[in-house]
Amino acid sequence: MFELIFCSLVTILPDYLYRRYVQGKRIGREITLYSVWFELRYGIVTCAMLTVSVITMVFYYHPTATGAVSVYRTVPILPDRPGRVAEIYIDLGLESQVKAGEPIFRLDSSQQQAEVEIASKQVGEIEADLALAQAELRVAQGQVDQATAALTQASEELATRQELMARNANVVSQRDIERLENTVSSRQGGLAAAIANREMVETKISVALPARLESATARLKEAEVALTKTTVHAGVDGTITQFNLRVGDIVNPVLRPAGLLIPADTAHARIAAGFGQIEAKVIKVGMVAEIACAAVPFTVIPMVVTEVQASIGAGQVSASDRVQDVSQLARPASITALLEPLYPGGLDEVPPGSQCIANAYTSNHERLATDPSLSTGQYVFLHVVDTVGVVHAAILRLQVLLFPIRTLVLSGH
């Protein structure tokens, strides 16, 4: 409508003024309902061609997306293992605000507490074994000292008898010498056994028991971690919604999540808009855009395009047990672009998930100011492209004004 009115002002109106004031033809006499086409044929044809051209230019260079949504991220609230709910720490309302690290609910932890107690007792037993091994080491050292003393005594006695025998063979018999030699050999074996026993106790203290203690300590930590995981905490600041758990319910991380957590940093962050595939060469990062959301009537929010998805979702193919039919993939799809507020706090009043209408505007201002190679035709054309964006902006504002009437009055309420 705006395009038709604008084009008629520069085509049909001049044609009519020429007919009226130059040729003297008047409406109702020379220009009637039956002769208007013949009299104003040049203006009407030119108006139709110009209107189509302007509409095409407006909707191509300044695209619109009716499928724009205030997107937000959700985090499912799941425990690491299935279990029965024993305690709930948050308010059982429609939504609950939580901070990072706050507990949400706790599963029955009787088994985990028993495992922690068993692991703690095992650590205590090994520590007691270490204390006992220290006493065994002192006993083994005493046995070594005793065997050393006995060997020294037997060796000295053997040396004395051998010296006496060397001086006078009749004083000491050969039988006594052999008996003492056997005694020394026996005492040497006893000393070696005592030393081996001491080394075994030292190995037990320095290697075996510390390894068992480390293993028991690791099992204790594992049991404590399992006990800690029975309490589910919030990972980030946000809002918990759809939380329908009650004490006694069974929670399964595969079949039944406890609820959803909406992180606070993504609730009012961006708008995802789907533009037509024909706009693939027009939608660019940095384009200025505007949105109008149903949840915030009579408001136009300035935005900027921050990301444009390079691929189109309709063509994705994943491995499956069926042969892909290309006709099923050739359905219409859109180019996804992410819009963020041009000014801080622009989306604070827009609830997450709101449906919106988005307009993106092509701007050639920088190119017109910095590119000296533009011809006169290109310079004028780019100016016209930037100018007709006002038409699309006016259309958006008209839609914003008429939306409450169309929704509340004309929709059958």
Shape: rod-shaped
How many β-strand runs?
Answer: 14
Look at the structure and give the mean pLDDT.
82
User: What is the end-to-end distance?
Assistant: 28 Å
The main sheet comes to: 6 strands, antiparallel, barrel
Q: Considering DSSP H and I runs of 4 or more, what fraction of the residues is helical?
A: 40-55%
Distinct helical segment count: 9
Report what the structure shows.
- This protein is an alpha+beta fold and 413 residues long.
- The strands form three sheets. The chain has a six-stranded antiparallel barrel with strand order 1-10-13-12-11-14. A four-stranded antiparallel sheet has the order 2-9-7-4, with no helix packed on it. It has a four-stranded antiparallel sheet with strand order 6-5-3-8, with no helix packed on it.
- Strand 11 and strand 12 form a beta hairpin.
- Helix 1 packs across helix 4, helix 4 crosses helix 9 and helix 5 packs antiparallel against helix 6.
- The radius of gyration is 46 Å and the shape is rod-shaped.
- The mean pLDDT is 82.
Keyphrases for this structure?
413 residues; alpha+beta; 6-stranded antiparallel barrel; 9 helices; 18% strand
Brief account:
The chain has 413 residues and is α+β, with helices and mostly antiparallel strands.
Layout of strands and helices, then pairs:
Elements: H1 2-10, H2 12-22, H3 36-39, H4 41-61, E1 64-71, E2 75-77, E3 83-88, E4 95-98, E5 103-107, H5 110-167, H6 174-228, E6 231-233, E7 238-241, E8 250-251, E9 259-263, E10 270-275, E11 288-293, E12 301-308, H7 326-329, E13 335-341, E14 355-361, H8 365-370, H9 376-408
Helix pairs in contact: 1-4, 2-4, 4-9, 5-6
